[in-house]
Specification:
Helix content: 55-70%
Structural class: alpha/beta
Bound molecules: adenosine-5'-triphosphate
Number of helices: 26
Oligomer: single chain
Number of strands: 10
Amino acid sequence: METNRRIYFIFFGILFTIIIDLCLSSSQNALIFLTFTRIIAIFISFFYRIAYDNYDKNADYDTAKTFWTPFKNLFVIIAVIEQAFVMYQIKFSSNLLSILYIILQVAMPLFVYLWIRRIEQENLSFLQYIWFEIFNTTNDHDLQSKRKDELHVLKRLFKYSLDDWKIITFGTILLLGAALSEVFVPLYTGRLLSSVAFKEAWLQFQHNLIIGFLGGFRMGIFSICISRLNIRLRTKLFQSYLKQEIGFFDTHESGKLLSRLNHDTQIMSSTVANNIAQCIGALVRFSGTLIMMIKLSIHLTIACLIGAPLILVVAKISGNAHGRISEKVQNLSAEAFEIAEETIQTIRTVRSFGNEDEELKRFENTLQQSYQVSLIQAALIAAQKWFVELAQLCMSIIMLSYGAKLVRDNYITGPDLLAFIIYQLTLGGVLSDISQIYTSMMTAAGASQSVFDYLDRQPIQKPNGILQPSELIGDIEFNNVSLTYPARPNEIAIQNISFKIKSGQTCAFVGPSGSGKSTCVNLLERFYDPSDGKILIDGREIHEYDHKYFHHKIAMVGQEPVLFNRTIRENINYGMNDNDETMIIQAAQQANADGFITELMNGYNTKCGQRGSHLSGGQKQRVSIARALMRNPTILLLDEATSALDPVNERLIQDALYYKKDNSQSRTILISAHRLSTIERCDRIFVIHKGHLVEQGTHDELMMIDNGIYRELVRRQTIDIDDD
Ligand SMILES: Nc1ncnc2c1ncn2[C@@H]1O[C@H](COP(=O)(O)OP(=O)(O)OP(=O)(O)O)[C@@H](O)[C@H]1O
């Protein structure tokens, strides 16, 4: 919302309240109206929350924004009207504290206003920057041992929520005001109960009512804080995932990663945002209540406090247990999520083997395990609650009997004893709140552990290079390259492979299944860094090139081409900034895909389905070849890229791509193929066997080698064809 419109809102809000102020003549009417506006405000904050949840789930920012803007505006108006009514109450209450409280409440519209601005502006302020500097400790050497420290985890959690420092500071000030005011509630109530007949009591009672209503309003605002913190945490975590090396994804199941992203971040943000405010409020109420109690009777206070340390010790013990249990529950639900994700992704295989029941059982078993752990958690909560209640009850009994004696001995008046007992109940409530806050903070700490581990994880691959030459020639060199995959640290996938390919050449990797052909291609794509040796392009190591530049110049079509659930056009144009229709069609024509695409009812606008499931294997391959050609790459890697095509289509693509390429195209092409007839005409063929480069040369040269592996492979394939 523009600033001008916001000012109009506030202006009209105030005008409106002045008019109503003139119309109303009694405090009861004001109270009724105030109640009414409060209820509306609570409803609005509720819808606001739904809107934010919507935003979160669908990640459809524009829709959500349109949805919540009217609520946002209404929220401001209601807040302004409401505050004016609180001001109106001043006329009926001269109590100094009420005035202080009301002044704090007047800050509410300002707070809402600043908060909306905060939502709209993402820039860090100077103060925020300082906060970040103070709390940022990620480069610590013994980070792993620090992770164990729950306080450290909590500190990190606070760091993340501090981005909303304005809302938190204002919210805290308001809560401080409310909490301070609440400190006096028992005093009023004590007097009220002992003088029900007196008219003034009604006024005190109104005051208590107003305080109660304000709670709902504040909660709405803090729930928005939760959503914002949640978005930030998720974005940071997703960003951290995206920069990890491919080996990380080999060793970390996607279901677990997603569960952290979806579930754990939710727990973290909701717990922290809720508890920051509540914790401060509870501490203020605790000290305020204590002061009032001491003022009323020091004897009774001492008697009352005997049980307090015990409650805090119990809270600490159960809080720590909660942290540990919560981590276990999170791990188990992540596992269940992993099973569900894998099953859904592989549903065709599951269906074809009729294994649905087994998968369901696996899923349910994991959830049951997590349920068993949750039972312990539930028992802990129940025991803790029971203990606190019992302690409170005991204290009340002691207070009543001891208090009655003090009244008889004239140490304290009847109304003050009544007030004291209410204070004591309040103190019990506050202590119980503190213990619950501690428990839920520990739950958040448990959930945060692995999220922070992922957030801090530095990718093992060397950092991004900077080379961006205006022209990449396309010479490739493997220099004694070996690789051990991170998922199989004890097995060498390829060993001491060396070869050179000149720019513009078309070469092929051949060899039995599992020999290491795709591994060579993966290394050229820099999915993995070699464990040993060097890979050079135009004489420079590939990690020296800028990441985006490099992947613009090198394109790959993998064994199982993966398409996105978007239109064919979007898939072909994937990762390209401009939307050049002619280039898209040209790329599709070169990949021999244009024909089948134009025959589809929606043509280039046809959706491909998840991982391209709406297209046939051969169609998928052709669309992914077109996607690779879109960027006019200097080096093209084709890993079994035409294996699903019929011989006619395969031949057409091969001719277009490499056998009949015109002289203006100096594209280096590397093919990995099983059907040897398709690579006969290559400039050079590399034969890989059990991870070693055993033969290299043209087809004719390789056929001359007696007992050569290539010759044997060709012989076997010829026999198979003849048999057919
Ligand atoms: N991500 C991975 N993690 C662990 N080991 C892997 C991984 N990818 C491949 N391997 C192993 O590395 C070896 C070489 O595999 P590679 O995929 O390079 O073979 P290939 O020659 O391309 O086989 P095919 O012709 O069947 O595609 C195999 O033993 C394989 O099991």
